[in-house]
Amino acid sequence: MAGTYRFSFGPWNVHEGEDPFGPRVRETIPFEEKVKFAVKAGFGAIQFHDDDAVDVTLPIAEQNKKLAELKKMLDDNGLEAEFIAPRLWFNPHTIDGGWTSNSAEDRQYAIDRCKRAVDIAKELGTDRLVLWPAREGSYVREAKDSKLAYDRFVELLNILLEHDKTIRILGEMKPNEPCDSTLSPTTGHFLALASRTIDPDRVGILIESAHAMLANLEPSDEMGMALSFGKLWGIHLNDQNGLKFDEDKTFGTANLNKAFSQVYILDKYGYGNNGEYVGLDIKVLRTQKQDVSFAHLANSKAIFEMLVEKVRSCDQKYIDELIAARDYEELSFYILKVIMGKA
Ligand code: GLO
Ligand code: MG
To answer: Model confidence over 253-271: pLDDT tens digits?
Structure first.
């Protein structure tokens, strides 16, 4: 069954270009401009961190008023909020991690912030909470008890599942950066944790292409695993040139064949037919000038759409014959010919 594709991106995908080695190189683009681009370029949703949606330091009543205004603005533009993700890695309370921090007070801060992120999601009309365990790890193994940290991970999931009976939690796993080795580095780890929760049916997966590649895994196989569990509820498409820092490159620009494989499995299993979004998580190249700081999103969407066409143009009967004959050499040649428009 072919997929139905609606696209999303996060406001942080259009940024000012600072990196650990240099300052910002572009002006801040207001959120309203990002919304205008989303509409013009045919996106269906915006992804939000909690503090992208609202100033989380305001009193709750004031936050809710602002969230209602934001929801109206999205509605007026025909956009949805795809998910809320608590941005736990910026606050002084989370220097040593959030729910796995060694400090009870800091763990409580993280738990409260995650609970509030669930409420923000509901205010914006989405039942998806994305958890990226950025600092849930350590640089010094003896500094954090990994057995206890995994127990605390399950505890957090249970607290959130208990907090709201309709929220769905999407784990976005990444093996490293900012930690040298993050706890629960892969989809498989997170699914194992999900199975220990009070409601595994509400715990699912968001797969980011670059995160899989950083774990030296094949993104399309990671998607296949999540699909097999009926838990592929979100994706972050992007690309990655080998095992280095998380590059978040434009989809398909480093590994076109891997990008094709991702689209192939998504389309084969009707991704998107249950309302899942094709989410992008892509950084603007630092070298881009101000007036072309949206191109990476428009280009990634276009590349995805071109690959859908390529996937659907495949002679599936011929592919099945090659599989039956176990002629995978010819299969690989055929796929490359399809990609190059020579099949
Ligand atoms: C970083 C992650 C990050 C998340 C975002 C939503 O490597 O990919 O961008 O996707 O914070 O959870
Ligand atoms: Mg991501």
So the answer is: 999 999 999 999 999 999 9
Q: Evaluate whether 221 touches 230 at the Cβ level (below 8 Å).
A: no
Query: Would the CB of 130 count as within 6 Å of ligand 1?
Result: yes
Query: What's the CA-to-centroid distance between 132 and ligand 1, angstroms?
Result: 6
Residue 33 burial (10 A CB sphere; 0-12, 13-18, 19+)? middle
Is the C-beta atom of 172 inside 6 A of ligand 1? yes
Q: Looking at the domain assignment, is residue 113 inside a domain? A: yes
Catalytic residue status for 49: yes
pLDDT value of position 245: 94
Q: How many domains does the chain divide into?
A: 1
pLDDT tens digit string along 196-224?
A: 999 999 999 999 999 999 999 999 999 99
Please indicate, yes or no, if residue 342 is contained in any of the structural domains.
Answer: no
Q: Which CATH number characterizes residue 250's domain?
A: 3.20.20.150
Per the domain annotation, does 126 fall within a domain? yes
Mean model confidence pLDDT for the chain = 97
In a domain, 53, yes or no: yes
pTM: 0.97
Q: How far is CA 150 from the centre of its chain?
A: 22
What domain range includes position 265? 7-312
